[in-house]
């Protein structure tokens, strides 16, 4: 283990469940955190050959590995895995070296081989035998060949110019076709495994008596180099062989040996007469060096052949663009992520070898992100600045990968990284204070005002709720006066306000979001209560007690503009609702007194006279200027006297304004009028009866005494009181006599 990479060696065909190692111990990772960190193994292989136990970190075989199927003819077989862990994001590389075991026997391409040998050949003649193929590598591959015993042939190993070995059949004794026309041999190939494995093929030798020279190539090994994007038909190389025979026995035909793979035979063509090797189609290979065997065979009745090796080097061209793979992506990321936070892990690979496969990678410079190289071919996308979701809620990050080929090939891939919200913005009001005006005597639940705050955050972080901050207003808890809607900030009155008791107050409304932790802001609301004309003026002076009339004493002969009294009133309302004016609603003598409408001073209009009544009564109305106006009245009794009497007179029967003609008064007036009318009619009737009686009986004083006659005469005629007898000076009725005549009505019975 070194630099975040661990290398394991495992033999192929290891059974399922076999232990390979412990990844947690080898990488010094706590095994208990593997599951929580969402570990995963990433590989380009189509099969998942290994498992990791999430509890113990044990690494075991999930699928047996066939090295020959996985790596074909490669000398070193490697499996690369990446272990990705999150929270924090980490990447480890695991390399598995698959060791070969001797699980494949050598085999020959054909089920049997035929060799034609002219009978006239001398001992020492050589014939090429087929090479066996063994998919194993190293000592487990083919190591030697053996030939079944035969008196005419033996086996020798030959070495080509590149060091490879091949078997040859060597004639050690002259042949006699008439004695034996066919020789059946068995060629056996053995590998170096433990225990070794082998494969054999029958070799049938037919003895001919013609064509005793085999074609010979100019070179045992031909080398060529072509570009990997060479078009079909491109000449690779031209091979040439010669045959010392003449005629058909010296005519040579070229072909690929049966030991050349079928894929290569389809990929290349060889002209049978010229020996030109050309490309057939597209070079779909990943190996830089291709190996083929070319056979030259003459046209003799029993054609002879020889082989040469063709090595073709594929020169890479920059025909592959970089491949960008998103191995891991964390999106969305919180806006408070600190610089250096890993967002994504990228794998960038170019299939071209050499400089053509080297890649540079970059992202736009105006983004708060940067790419950092990680392991080989891996980059980490990390934050390089502060993020603010309220300004930018997401980023399209274009990753540009360019190889170093000529011309370079560029690949782009765009990542969408979303920024998630955190509660970093408190609610904000449009102003620090608000002024609210409300009229007093408002109804319960009256809407006063709606405060509103905005929050730039989203979701629950941006959902604002409102509440009243605890405070006391005029000795009362704020909650007993007001309520606020939790959802929309509407403020309502929970009771009626009285301007005369509370003219203004202020309180604070708090706006709080639903983030965690929650952020808040407060606004001050000033409430001004507007006055209504709900208070009538209060008379402070003069005052009456127990319903009696307030009495003011004025000198009997007071001068003009004498101050009788000053009416003092107060109104608890404000402004024009408390502007007072004074008026005389009633006065027993309108010519005697006048009232100042602004000061409330009651003064005499003229000087007092001896003939003026001693008692006067005035009614003063005090009225405000509200809408509608309210008023109060006070009755003032005025006594004309030079000294204060011991007992104040009663003013209830003096100076009263005439009764109003309401229904009750009208009824009383009609009743009194009817009674008076009936009584007058009755008196008239009695007088008529009496008159008639006197005229008939004693008109000449014959029937009536003189005294009675004289009384009668005065009863029906108006006479001055000085002419009446003293016994007739009687006062009847109630009230003052303002005339010097007395009317006497009496009824005398004769």
Automatic annotation (TrEMBL):
Membrane topology field: Single-pass type I membrane protein
SMART domains given in the database record: CA
PROSITE patterns found in the cross-reference section: CADHERIN_1 (PS00232), CADHERIN_2 (PS50268)
Protein name per its UniProtKB record: Protocadherin alpha-C1
Residues covered by the Cadherin domain: 3-108, 109-217, 218-324, 325-429, 430-539, 564-651
Function: Potential calcium-dependent cell-adhesion protein. May be involved in the establishment and maintenance of specific neuronal connections in the brain.
Keyword Cell membrane part of the UniProt annotation: yes
Cross-referenced PANTHER family: CADHERIN-87A, PROTOCADHERIN ALPHA-C1
Top-level lineage group: Eukaryota
Pfam hit, one: Cadherin_2
Cell compartment(s), UniProt: Cell membrane
Transmembrane domains' residue ranges: 666-686
A GO term, aspect molecular function: calcium ion binding
InterPro entries named among the record's database cross-references: Cadherin-like_dom, Cadherin-like_sf, Cadherin_C, Cadherin_CS, Cadherin_N, Protocadherin/Cadherin-CA
Predominant cellular place of this UniProt entry's protein: membrane
Keyword entries, A-Z: Calcium, Cell adhesion, Cell membrane, Glycoprotein, Membrane, Repeat, Signal, Transmembrane, Transmembrane helix
Listed GO biological process terms: homophilic cell adhesion via plasma membrane adhesion molecules
Organism: Buceros rhinoceros silvestris
Signal peptide start and end residues: none
One CC-aspect GO term: plasma membrane
